[in-house]
Amino acid sequence: MADAQPFDSRDGVIWFDGAFVPWSDAKVHVLTHGLHYASGVFEGERAYGGVIFKMREHNQRLIESARLLGFEIPFTVEQIDRACVETLARQGFEDAYVRPIAWRGSEMMGVAAQQNTIHLAIAVWQWPSYFDPAQRLKGIRVDLAEWRRPDPRTAPSRAKATGLYMICTLSKHAAEQKGYADALMLDWRGQVAECTGANVFFVKDGALHTPTPDCFLDGITRRTVIDLARKRGVEVIERAIMPEELAGFEQCFICGTAAEVTPVSEIAQWRFTVGDLTKALMEDYEATVRPAAKAEVAAA
Ligand SMILES: Cc1ncc(COP(=O)(O)O)c(C=O)c1O
Question: Which fold has domain 133-289?
Answer without folding.
Answer: D-amino Acid Aminotransferase; Chain A, domain 2 (3.20.10)
